[in-house]
Structure formats: C-alpha cells, structure tokens
Amino acid sequence: MKIDPAERRRLLELARASLSHGLSSGRALPVVLPEWPAHLCEPAASFVTLRRVDQLLGCIGSLEACRPLVQDIAENAYAASARDPRFAPLRSAELAEAVVEISVLTPPQALSVASERELLAQLQPGVDGLILEWQGRRSTFLPTVWRQLPRPSDFLGRLRLKAGLKAEFWASGMTFYRYQTISFREESMPRGQARAEAPS
C-alpha cells in the first residue's frame, strides 16, 4: 500500500480526532468510509503509538488485516490512550502533549528457522518487525523498537520477555513471523500545526 504525504497527514488527523472523541465519549471516532480513498479503506493492520518526548504513553495495534485501515487506525488510537494495560488512561493534558505515530503493517511472513542463530541471521535490524508465538503466548515488536534495541540478540531477548518467557528461552515449537511497516508521526509542535514525518 502506498500512502502519500497528504494522506499521511490526514490519517494522523484522524488518529488525533479519535483521541479527542474518545476522551469525551469513551469510544473511538466513527469513520465514514465513503469520505476516504478506496485504498485506505482496504483491510490492513496498524499500530498507533503515543509518546511524550521519549516516554511511551500507550501503544495498541492489530497484527491481522481484519477491518478497513482508516477504521483500524481510529480504533487503535483510542485504545492506545485508554486501553493499554501497562498504563492508566491518559488525561486531557497528557493527550495534548502526546505525539502520535502510526505504523501500517505489511502481511506477516513466516520464518523457517531451526535455531536462534538462523533466526538472528534472517532479521534485518531497523527494518523488520517480529512476531513470536509459542503455546498460546504471542508478542511483537515493531521495527521502531530497533532504536532502543539495535542488537538482534537483545531485540529477540526482550521480545521473549514480553511474551512471559525467559530472555534466552528456545523451543522447537516456537514460530516467528516478520513484517515491515510504513511509519509516520506528528512532529513535536503545537496541535493544529502537525505535519507528517518519517521516523528516524
């Protein structure tokens, strides 16, 4: 999916509007699909991340393309502010300071690996997101997490911890999927003047 700069700005405005709507109504902003370009109404998976400077305030998303992209973004924006179990729901002042980042996922690709060494050799730092599944446990890291964990071994270790496993855990039944993202975010500037920029 291609998303041009004007569409990125509009999607960021949608996420911001859903945050405001959720604060007053307790639910995501309803999306009127005919008002959007057809390709942005195709089923797609996304994550919405809220940050204040380098502090994570919330991050919620979808790994499967199960609803129109614009609806997925609106729902995930509200959920990131109110339903991330790691954080208390954000208040109005916190939302005003938050920077919104959207990541649109490519379809996950299963990795055929027999060892941790093979897995680490296939990962592309800074490019790949990774999904881990094992006996009902599931966790993922977006490609943006490479900024904090640039070493593949650390990236994988923390992903296993996120799944409730030991950092060095390995079992033959583990499955892994990688994906890439189209990611863009608001700049840190007063609301109403937001412009889309690609994450560094």
Fold and architecture overview:
This protein is α+β, with helices and mostly antiparallel strands and 200 residues long. 30% of the residues lie in helices and 24% in strands. The chain is globular and about 45 Å long. Mean pLDDT is 92; it is low at 188-200.
Task: Report low-confidence residues grouped into runs of 5 or more.
Answer: 188-200
Quick one: CATH class of the largest domain?
Alpha Beta
Specify the CATH architecture of the largest domain: 2-Layer Sandwich
Alpha carbon gyration radius: 17 Å
Biggest beta sheet attributes? 5 strands, antiparallel
Strand order of the largest sheet: 2-1-3-8-9
Shape: globular
Rounded average pLDDT: 92
Tally of DSSP β-strands? 9
Secondary-structure element pattern, one letter each: HEEHHEEHEEHEEE
CATH topology of the largest domain, by name, is Glycoprotein, Type 4 Pilin
C-alpha termini separation: 21 Å
Briefly characterize the structure:
The protein has 200 residues and is of the alpha+beta class.
List the defining traits of the structure above.
single chain; 200 residues; alpha+beta; Glycoprotein, Type 4 Pilin; Dna Ligase, domain 1; 2 domains; 5 helices; globular; disordered C terminus
